[in-house]
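Box 3.1 A note on notation
Throughout this textbook, protein chains are presented in two layers. The first layer is the amino acid sequence; the second is a token string describing backbone geometry. Keep the layers aligned when reading.
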Amino acid sequence: MTRFALVLVAVGVGTGCQIKNELSCELPENATSAACLGDSGQACTSNTDCTDGATPVCKLSAQLCVQCVASTDCAGTTPVCDVSANTCEACTAHTDCSSEVCLPSGACAAAADVAYIAEAGTGDDCSQASPCADLLVATATTKLLFKISGSVEVTPLQDLSRSVTIFAAPGATLTRTDAGSIVRVAGGIDVTIYDLQIFGAASGGDGIAMAGVDTKLTLERVVL
């Protein structure tokens, strides 16, 4: 009987011979290519390269199109840029907004729409740069939003005669230096107050007095 021997020959391939894939995503020059980015984003070197409206800003350090790199890239109800995620978010605090007023919707109020009231305020137009002394001066403006900062002491009764929304900086207080109620809300109007401390009414006065009928008063996180 004839026997056959099967001889296996192992062929070793040396590691010294390698062929570089010029399209490899591991190469720095390909890292931001569309093929390597996949669904992660669009490559760019300037904003003009960012054609997707959802990511219109070029983050130059990553050469990648993103939603924002600063809050100036954001607007509406998402006016704050989360620079770690490069996404536009809602404001959550007054300090998130240049106007110092974060609305419940998550948008920042325009400073021109706000009457600013501050401790030792002396302004007549109640602007952010020149705040006024009390609610009476603010009510004389046509602005629908009020912002109170600091410890505001008032002498006459503060009559609110039109519908407004009042915001307060952290720790803001409204007190009265003589006897009587501090704030009186007229009939037929709608007033909302956020985060304000109202105290110090003397001689049995109320922190907030309601006058007339069909008055709506909403208090959110208000201390009386």
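Residues 102 and 108 are 5 Å apart (CA to CA). Helices lie at 34-37, 135-139.
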